Queue: 2 jobs
Job 1
Amino acid sequence: MRLSRRLASTTVAVALVLPVSSAAIAHARVHSAEAGAGTEPAEPFGAACRISVTGSRVTAFCHNPYPETDSVSLHVECTRWWDLDSDGSPVAAEPAQTVRMTARCWKEIDSAWVSHRREG
């Protein structure tokens, strides 16, 4: 009886943690247009990015685990119509490197995302 209670409480704890973890980390992978029917699959590409919003500030951390450079840009849409949206300058995420990008709105942030582009 004791084992089943421990197993049940562990299962509930894992079930409550998993949705939060997957929502907190936004993984973005870029799929190559070259990969099509009848061709060899392209090498994996695209930095994994986490975006954090605190008030009117956005911070994105992107880690590139692949051998090809990923040019990442942070994009922000502000909630207020008069607040300017922004598209950040591209930052080169070299192989095995983590880059940090920040942006902000005057008031609230509506959405934020990272775009990816192959370098070279």
Note: Helices lie at 2-24.
Job 2
Amino acid sequence: MPLNEETNARFDSLLTLHVDKVITTEQFKQQNERITQQQEDLANKKAELILALESKQNFDQQLHAFKKEVGRFITLDFDDEQVMKQVLQRLIHKIEVFEGERIKIHYNLSNPYAIN
């Protein structure tokens, strides 16, 4: 049973209990508020998951474009040092150098085809 149908069924059961005077109006209201809050929480979680999925898809597309650009770089024969610098600038956003000869490279995943 889909979640929305399950929630509707719970509300219908609650309403029946109220109509049959098994529960008070106050109990009905409290339970109804609880069901409404659960629906809102689920709707918010659904929206978060959709955003996360879209973000991952966007990242996957960016990564694919980056890999394609790296593939092009690997197959090129650079006689001109300036051309090689321009291609590297398209691939690398920045390089951080730390003590102990450790480096961190920030790749240009957001737009590897940008012209610098």
Note: The first strand starts at residue 92 and ends at 98.
